[in-house]
Each structure stands twice: as structure tokens, then as C-alpha cells.
Write a structure and sequence with these properties.
The complex is a heterodimer of chains A (307) and B (453). Among the domains of chain A are: 33-62; 64-99. Helix content of chain A is 51%, strand content 0%. Chain A contains 15 helices and no strands. Chain A has helices spanning 29-35, 38-56, 66-86, 88-98, 104-114, 116-122, 135-138, 162-169, 180-183, 196-204, 217-224, 238-243, 250-258, 268-275, 282-305. The longest helix of chain A is centred in the last third of the chain and has 24 residues, at 282-305. Chain A is globular, with a radius of gyration of 19 Å. Chain B has 453 residues and is an all-beta fold. Chain B has helices at residues 282-286, 333-338; strands at residues 12-19, 25-30, 36-41, 45-51, 71-78, 83-85, 90-92, 98-101, 109-114, 119-132, 156-172, 182-185, 191-195, 199-204, 212-216, 229-234, 241-246, 251-255, 267-269, 290-293, 299-303, 307-312, 321-324, 348-350, 356-360, 365-370, 376-380, 397-398, 408-409, 421-424, 430-435, 438-444. In chain B, the strands form nine sheets. A four-stranded antiparallel β-sheet of chain B has the order 1-32-31-30, with no helix packed on it. Chain B has a four-stranded antiparallel β-sheet with strand order 2-3-4-5, with no helix packed on it. A four-stranded antiparallel β-sheet of chain B has the order 8-9-10-11, with no helix packed on it. The chains are: A mainly alpha (307), B mainly beta (453). Chains A and B meet through helix 2, helix 3 and helix 9 of A and strand 7 and helix 2 of B.
């Protein structure tokens, strides 16, 4: 992908290109992390966050733009590979490996979050996740743009709910998300709260038993309300608040299950967002509190699906 | 190459500003003679303009010579309606993605219009006579009482006001799982291709329940998807050749004689990446948003985010010409990524003699490049700064050096005013530019015919 020693530039307005040439020996990952100039790693970090947010946003009404999703996913993958090369990825890997346990995902996430402080400066990411796991994100759609003639889009807030998703799925390895792209049914993940259009959509799609989500969050909640995870609201991160609206993570799981895929809960991006929360203080507390809820959710899902 | 040099030899006159309905225009296309211009919009409507000739109606007072006429609305019809995919619980937009005219074979005109999923063949015909004097029906069409009929008459065709009828003749549905981005009529006059993100189908114009899949780049495991098809077009003369572009900046020329499924390209056109310019956005800005064969069939014109490139079909190592459309945006890629502008799909067009190429940009600007001199000029499609019949003046984006009056700073560019869709008359220097919900038609009064250019 990226020849070693190549001068890398991070295109941004006014930012100087950063040279992070030599490959750092993995033996000293923290050193590796620090040799990258902090501005470059921060830039890369923010680009990764931005990309993940974009993948998560859903334009609920219309099928998402596949080309855009693919390009964003490739960007995320590229960042991930670069971070792997830099060794910053490995820090997270080691942290996660050390924290393995039966409810591995959940614990790992918590550990991940605890380690976030140390890891944050290095701008790490969780262990290599298959970008493919962002599939659902592929239905994610347009970002709010000023003057956009498209339907207004609500961004999903990184609510307390979301971390559980991350804990669920960040593990690397096969996500079993094969049909995600194709079946774009998964599109129905994100909700839009006060979408005028979504209400129209609701009236048309009152079949609540459909295997994916209707556009209207309220309808969705009626149907899947039992699976909604309640959390004590953490102090909202202002930056994330304005970006996201409420997302019920149960959708993801339900969707996964109902579309016949492995019930490995997805949502790599959320856990990434979380762990990359060097910018966001909220996620730390929230993730630990969702562990038990996620257990509940898994249990419920299994019952529903009978799998 | 010198850019933005004010070219005095091209003088453009702004004919008229046609304001369509409030909807945004999503495609513009001249027919093969240039007498008809079709636009499609986000509301699923198609508006056809017809060029007035001197023999038709009153000649304009402006004193122009020749048969240059204005374009007036000829017909409007609703091509596609909003649809709903019940399986996926998603709306299917009625936005017209592409319109392509068929070569004219009789008095009627045919065009193909497509939204994300369904392609329709429309017949546009004129009726200027109607029969009068029926025996069994009266003038309003009601049946007469037979006992009142005492004699027979032969119905006579009488001229009436011109009526333009548009009827759907074919509906090609259920051919695409993904969003259709291109349609292209084959030179054989019988078939056409439609391309979505992952597949290209070939249809026969007369058969709606079957299509041949000629390209399929869907991976067995969707997790491995990293590239999509962005545009496709048939060769203008060779009915067995077509090209398609990808989101990774590659072009693939395929020969349908080689095999039924053209997953293996005959030629792959790809420019090696410039390591000096590498960034996280390299791939995104290399994604080809439009590809067009030259009229001669020898060259390909492609548009990616920052450049327009001309490729020689005989050389696949790289483009033969590269034109910087708005290089000043290279340092803004992160912001453009954030507001999604980096994913804008600009179209590009050739002029009739393949000597000039044109493409759109932001701030209502569009760019023309003269291939012989390599020079580019920036023009603006903005009502406030242009009056009908005024000469279009060239614009400039200030990127350093001496600042001239009228220069626009990069930070003052309006990224919501993007010129994505455009068309060039097949034989004359007339261009149609879609600017959001406005259609601008410009004509070169100095050099109306390309031969004299």
C-alpha cells in the first residue's frame, strides 16, 4: 500500500505535510506512537473519526450511495493499515488480548476504554477490525451540508447506547457480514428523529415486522422497544452531540439476526469512535455501563431468533 | 500549460435563462441533430426544448444570420414517479439520472430516461392534424344517434394546433440491484447498456423482460468490495466496444466479441499514482465521475475530482492530456471531504470537433480547455452576473500572484453552486449548462460553426 519511508502528506487546509518515514520497530510501540508528530496523528485520527461517522450516518429513506460508501471505507482501511504499520494499532491489540475473557467483547471494550488515556495520545485504534464490518455503515448517507438540497439528515449522536455496539463487534476476524452490501436491508440502522420524510415513510411502511428498520425511530421503537437499552445519560460530549442523534443499537443486532447472518453484533465503527475518544470524555463511563445491557440484548436476541 | 488565459477569440452570447421548475436539473442531453435538448430533474420530470428555426415562427430581431435559433419548451412530461422498494423498505428516487436520445428513424423522437432502478423508452411525436367528420361520432366524440344519420361522409384530416405527445413505449425494470449511473445507446441502433455500481447490462430496445449481464464486478464476498463502476459508454462507431470507469480511477475497454461476460477487460487504462501527491484522499479524488468517447472514437475524456484527462485508446499507460480544473482545491480536500463535496460527480463533454473539452466546477463556474493550445478558460453560469445576450466574460480564481479585479478567492467559492451537468451541441458551438434548477444555454456568435474555429 504505502512504501516505507515515503513522505506522507496529510492534505488539510493550512496543515504542513508530515513526514513519518521510517518504520518503527514494534518492540517499542509507545515510542513508535510518539515519533509520529502529534499533529499528523491527530489529523489522521480526526479523519478516521470523520470517516466512521460518515459511514454510520444513514439516509434512511433512500438507498445509500454505494460509491461514496466504498470510498469512505477504503479511506478507513487505509488509515487502519497505516496505523498498523506504525505500530499504534498494536498497542490496542495487546491491550485487548490481555483482557480476554468469556464475555470477551464486552470486557475488552471496557479495558479498551480504560486504556484509552494511555492509548489516546498515540491515536490508536482497536485491534484490526475488518473494515468490512462497517457494512451497515454503508447505508450511511449524506452528511448535513449547508444548503444541501437533499433531505436534511440527522446525524446520530454517540449516545450512551452506542458503546455497547462497539463492545460487541470490534473484534477482528470474520464478522460474517457477507451480504451487508448487497442486502442493503441493513440500511435501516440509524434513525432520524424528526425527519418529515421519515414520517411519510412510516405511514407506508407500517409493517413493523419487517426485518429491517423503518425510517421512523418512533415506529421502530414501538416494535423493538423491548430491546432498547436504557442507560444513565452520561454527560454529553458537545462535539459528538451535534454530530449524532439517538441511535438504538439494538437495531444493528436485530438486523444482523433477522437477515440470517451471524449474530456477532456489528458496529466496528462505534467502538472505534469510542476508543478513539481522545477527544471525547463521555465514552469511558458509558461503555462500562452497557456491558450488562449488551448481555441482556444478546440473550433476548437469541430467544427471538431461536438460534 | 497556461491556465485561465483570457481567450478573446471565443465570444459567447448568453441567449436566455430558462428557469425550470424549482427542482434541480440532474441531466442534460442534446439529440443527434441538436434540435432537441432534454433535461431531467430531481422530480422525475423531463423537459424537452426545441430549437426554433427561421422557417418556424417569427425570426428573432437580434439580426443573427444563419439558422441560429433559440430553444423553447417543446414538451414536459413526468418520466418517473417516486417508488418504494418494499423489500428493503427504502424509497426509490424519481430523480432522472441520465437521458439518452436514440438516433432518429422516423418522424418521432425516442429517448431513454432512467432513474436509479428503471429505464424507460419514451416516444415523442407531433400531431398537427386531426380527423374531422366522423359518421358515428359527433365533434365531441359522443356516439350519434343512428336514426339521425342520413348521409355518409368521409372524415377529413384538418390541421390543428401542434400537439406534442409523449408516450412510454418500453419500461425496462428489475434489471438492477444497485443504482443505475449510466445508459448508453449502441451504434447498432438496437441495443443499449445500463450500468449500475456493480453491474452492466445490455438490453435490446424491443425487449423489456430480459437483459444480458455483460460486466459484473460484485465480489463473492461483499466484504471484499473496494471498487465500483462509476460510468460506462459504448464506442460511437464500434458496436462491440464499450468502456467503463471505476472509483479507483481506472478505465476498462471491453470487447463484447471476446466473451459473453466482459469481466476481463481488453484494455485497462490507468495512470500510475504520483507518489509526491499521495494523501489519504488520493483514491477518492482519482475516482472517475464521467467518461466520454470523443466523436472520432479515438479518444476518451474522463473527469476525476480535480482534473479532466484525455486518453488515447491506443495507449493505456496514461492520459495523453491532463487539464487542471481546480487545482486550488487540493489543499482543501479535508474540508471537502467533511462536507461531502469531494464526492461530487462532475460531467465532462467534448465539442463537436473534439478540439475543446468542457467540464464544471464550483461557484457556478465551468471550464473549457482548448486541446490545441492547452489553455483553459473559466466561465460563469450565474444569472446575476449575466444578462441575456451579454457576452460571457471569463472569470478567474485567485491562487496567488497578482490579483486582478474580479478574481474570486478560493475561500469565497460557493460550493453549493456546482455545475455538474452539461451538454454540447453535436455540430455547433452551443452549450447547455445546468446550474441547480436553472438551465443556461450559451452560443458562440463569433464562431457558431465549429469548422471555422
Amino acid at each position: 500500500m504505502f512504501p516505507k519511508g515515503t513522505k506522507r502528506k496529510f492534505s488539510d487546509s493550512g496543515e504542513e505535510p508530515v513526514s513519518a518515514g521510517d518504520q518503527v520497530p514494534p518492540a517499542a510501540p509507545s515510542v513508535a506512537a510518539r515519533t509520529l508528530t502529534s499533529s499528523y496523528s491527530l489529523q489522521r485520527q480526526s479523519l478516521l473519526d470523520m470517516s466512521l461517522i460518515k459511514l454510520q450516518l444513514c439516509h434512511m429513506l433512500v438507498e445509500p450511495n454505494l460509491c461514496r460508501s466504498v470510498l469512505i471505507a477504503n479511506t478507513v482501511r487505509q488509515i487502519q493499515e497505516e496505523m498498523t504499520q506504525d505500530g499504534t494499532w498494536q498497542i490496542m491489540t495487546q491491550a485487548l488480548a490481555a483482557a480476554q475473557c468469556p464475555a470477551d467483547r464486552l470486557v475488552a471494550t471496557e479495558v479498551l476504554c480504560r486504556q484509552t488515556d494511555a492509548a489516546a495520545q498515540a491515536g490508536q485504534s482497536p485491534k484490526p477490525f475488518s473494515v468490512v464490518g462497517l457494512e451497515e455503515g454503508y447505508h450511511a448517507e449524506e452528511v448535513v451540508m449547508e444548503g444541501d438540497v437533499e433531505t436534511e439528515v440527522t446525524m446520530s449522536t454517540l449516545s450512551p447506547v452506542s458503546p455497547q455496539l462497539s463492545s460487541a463487534s470490534y473484534l477482528a476476524g470474520p464478522f460474517g457480514m457477507g451480504p451487508c452490501w448487497e442486502e442493503e436491508e441493513e440500511d435501516g440502522e440509524c434513525e432520524e428523529d424528526e425527519e418529515e420524510d421519515s414520517e411519510e415513510c412510516v405511514s407506508e411502511g407500517e409493517e413493523a415486522d419487517r426485518d429491517h428498520l423503518s425510517a421512523d425511530s418512533r415506529t421502530g421503537e414501538q416494535v423493538f422497544g423491548t430491546f432498547e437499552i436504557k442507560h444513565p445519560a452520561p454527560p454529553p460530549d458537545p462535539a459528538l452531540e451535534e454530530l449524532f442523534s439517538d441511535v438504538d443499537p439494538s437495531y444493528y443486532d436485530l438486523d444482523t439476526v433477522l437477515t440470517g447472518m451471524q449474530s456477532a453484533p456489528k458496529m466496528g465503527p462505534y467502538d472505534l469512535l469510542e476508543s478513539l475518544s481522545s477527544h471525547g470524555p463521555t465514552t469511558l463511563s458509558s461503555s462500562s455501563s452497557c456491558r450488562s445491557d449488551l448481555n441482556e440484548l444478546d440473550h433476548i436476541m437469541e430467544i427471538i431468533v431461536g438460534s | 500549460m497556461g491556465e485561465d488565459a483570457e481567450s478573446s477569440k471565443i465570444n459567447h452570447t448568453f441567449l436566455r435563462d430558462y428557469v425550470t421548475e424549482a427542482d434541480v436539473i440532474s441531466t442534460v442531453e442534446f439529440n443527434q441533430t441538436g434540435d432537441l435538448l432534454a433535461t431531467g430533474d430531481k422530480g422525475g420530470r423531463v423537459v424537452i426544448f426545441q430549437r426554433e428555426t427561421e422557417s418556424k415562427g417569427e425570426a428573432e430581431e437580434a439580426g443573427e444570420t444563419g439558422d441560429s435559433g433559440e430553444y423553447n419548451v417543446y414538451s414536459t412530461f413526468q418520466s418517473h414517479e417516486p417508488d418504494f422498494d418494499y423489500l428493503k423498505s427504502l424509497e426509490i428516487e424519481e430523480k432522472i439520472n441520465k437521458i439518452r436520445w436514440l438516433p432518429q428513424q422516423n418522424a418521432a423522437h425516442f429517448l431513454l430516461s432512467t432513474n436509479d432502478k428503471t429505464i424507460k423508452l419514451w416516444k415523442v411525436s407531433e400531431r398537427d392534424k386531426r380527423p374531422e367528420g366522423y359518421n358515428l361520432k359527433d365533434e365531441e366524440g359522443r356516439l350519434k344517434d343512428i336514426s339521425t344519420i342520413t348521409s355518409l361522409q368521409v372524415p377529413v384530416l384538418k390541421p390543428t394546433d401542434l400537439m406534442v405527445e409523449v408516450r412510454p413505449r418500453r419500461v425496462f425494470s428489475n434489471g438492477h440491484t444497485y443504482h443505475v449511473n449510466s445508459i448508453s445507446v449502441n451504434s447498432d441502433g438496437e441495443t443499449y447498456l445500463s450500468a449500475d455500481d456493480l453491474r452492466i447490462n445490455m438490453w435490446h430496445l424491443g425487449i423489456t423482460d430480459r437483459s444480458f449481464n455483460i460486466v459484473d464486478i460484485k465480489p463473492a464476498n461483499m466484504e471484499d468490495l473496494t471498487e465500483v463502476i462509476t460510468a460506462a459508454e459504448f464506442h460511437p462507431h464500434h458496436c462491440h466496444l464499450f468502456v467503463y470507469s471505476s472509483s479507483k480511477g481506472t478505465l476498462r475497454l471491453c470487447d463484447m466479441r471476446a466473451s459473453a461476460l466482459c469481466d476481463k477487460h481488453t484494455k485497462l487504462f490507468e495512470e500510475p499514482e504520483d507518489p509526491g501527491n499521495r494523501s489519504f484522499f488520493s483514491e477518492i479524488i482519482s475516482s472517475v465521475s464521467d467518461v466520454k468517447f470523443s466523436h472520432s472514437g479515438r479518444y476518451l475524456l474522463t473527469r476525476d475530482y480535480l482534473t479532466a484527462k484525455v486518453w488515447d485508446l491506443n495507449m493505456d499507460k496514461g492520459p495523453v492530456e491532463t487539464y487542471q480544473v481546480h487545482e486550488y482545491l487540493r489543499s482543501k480536500l479535508c474540508s471537502l471531504y467533511e462536507n461531502d463535496c469531494i464526492f461530487d460527480k462532475f460531467e465532462c463533454v467534448w465539442n463537436s470537433s473534439d478540439s475543446v473539452i468542457m467540464t464544471g466546477a464550483y461557484n457556478s463556474f465551468f471550464r473549457m480547455f482548448d486541446r490545441e493550445t492547452g489553455r483553459g478558460v473559466t466561465l460563469e453560469a450565474w444569472r446575476e452576473s449575466s444578462k441575456p445576450r451579454a457576452v460571457l466574460r471569463t472569470r478567474r480564481v485567485y491562487t496567488g500572484g497578482k490579483r486582478r479585479r474580479g478574481d474570486v478567492g478560493v475561500d469565497s467559492l460557493d460550493f453549493t453552486k456546482k455545475i455538474l451537468h452539461m451538454a454540447w451541441h453535436p455540430s455547433e458551438n452551443i452549450i447547455a449548462i445546468a446550474a441547480t434548477n436553472n438551465l443556461y444555454i450559451f452560443q458562440d456568435r463569433v464562431n457558431p460553426d465549429t469548422q471555422t474555429q
